[in-house]
Amino acid sequence: MIPAPFDYLRAGSADEAIAALAEHGDDAKLLAGGMSLLPLMKLRLATPSVLVDVGRVHELSYIRDAGDHLAVGALTRHRDLEISDVLAAQCEPLRTVASEVGDNQVRHRGTIGGSVSHGDPASDLPALLLALDATFVVQGPDGERTVPATDFFRGFLETALEPDELLTEIRVPKSPGAGFSYQKFQRRAQDWAIVGAMAVRDGDTRVALVNMATTPLRAVAVEEAIAGGASATEAAERAAEGTEPSGDINATPEYREHLVRVLVRRALEAASA
Amino acid sequence: MGGSVRIATTVNGQAHEHDVEPRLLLVQYLREVVGLTGTKIGCDTSSCGACTVLVDGESVKSCTMLAAQADGSEITTIEGLAQGDELHPVQAAFHDQHALQCGFCTAGMVMATVSLLDEIPSPTERDVRLGLEGNLCRCTGYHNIVQAVLAAAGTSR
């Protein structure tokens, strides 16, 4: 399978990438690691006429301690997250979930910013960043703005990013010692989650769901139940509230609703252990 | 639209320069432009790992990378592992442990193993099974493959 023809531009910096987007508008698409975009282009589900390769914008590959939070450059690869000592000490959930994305080959190429910008409800990292209350830094022709993760994912593969904007940084609160569990239900090790549930417990309990709607989402009903004193088992009964799972070759919507209740209970229990 | 881009690569130690279509995939570049057909195209959807090669020492699926993205990189394919007639230790271990049946996945398995052992020199069996999750074999049931990787690492039990 071969992508439709396109013009290829390589950006050497964030500014160059934004200038290229401004010039080519809606016809242009950013290419980071390509782990989501290239398969779509090979299937001709995406046919951008200009591809702006930001894969070598090394200034956006970093993991920094920024005082009250960690700053992660958008072009940091999953592999770099997986072996990061800073994350192991200050945000182990991000390190763990990065190590569960795809397989080794995918983690050598794929980036956190690419995953977030793609906004796939079946992806691991967007849901985690919702659960962590992360903030995204976005740069456009008029400067920089920040968007909370909870406002970022708008629809199926649709985010708050404008066509001329580049996601540059992901800010995650430090969470040393937080309880965490990601329950990823899949048929084969490297597959996308059929359903995933993750719980972060650090005084507060936050729960996010993978592949239960057109966007990653927080299990608000479960969080409210826990805040009101419910047990994990009681709270997990409400895990399918507010979700709109699709049906596909792997699971019917009803089966996904069943799975999410089981997986949320397991995640809550494992995160408190 | 389309045009061409000039890329310079080093494949198995040999320098190359080519004008390629931007949409040319790395696997096609290696097989059809450079002429190295040891790298296989299996699923062509980034699932099976048959097309695994090393780019700057790390395993990647060459069906899901543009040749243009490999500009300036050092690429190693299955043809680049042996030293003359002497097999690479991972190749030798796959041979000794009979870690293949039809052989279609083998080049990708071997390349993924070389990368894995570079990152985890003394893996446990679990490390090996997780580390090769991106490579599918439909013949062997993986047992001998895992044994071969452990043997290559010198940690066979």
Question: How do the strands and helices of this protein lay out in sequence?
Answer:
The complex is a heterodimer of chains A (273) and B (157).
Chain A: E1 7-10, H1 14-24, E2 28-31, H2 37-42, E3 50-53, E4 63-65, E5 69-73, H3 78-82, H4 85-90, H5 92-98, H6 104-109, H7 112-118, H8 124-131, E6 135-140, E7 143-148, H9 149-152, E8 153-155, E9 158-159, E10 166-173, E11 179-185, E12 195-202, E13 204-210, E14 217-218, H10 220-227, H11 232-236, H12 253-272
Parallel strand pairs in A: 1-3, 2-3
Antiparallel strand pairs in A: 4-5, 5-10, 6-7, 6-10, 8-9, 11-12, 12-13, 13-14
Chain B: E1 5-11, E2 14-20, H1 26-33, E3 52-55, E4 58-61, E5 74-76, H2 89-96, H3 106-119, H4 125-131, H5 143-152
Parallel strand pairs in B: 1-5
Antiparallel strand pairs in B: 1-2, 3-4, 3-5
Keywords:
heterodimer, A: 273 residues, alpha+beta, Uridine Diphospho-n-acetylenolpyruvylglucosamine Reductase, domain 2, Uridine Diphospho-n-acetylenolpyruvylglucosamine Reductase, domain 3, Enolase-like, domain 1, 3 domains, 5-stranded antiparallel sheet, 4-stranded antiparallel sheet, 14 strands, globular, B: 157 residues, Ubiquitin-like (UB roll), DNA polymerase, domain 1, 5-stranded mixed sheet, 5 helices
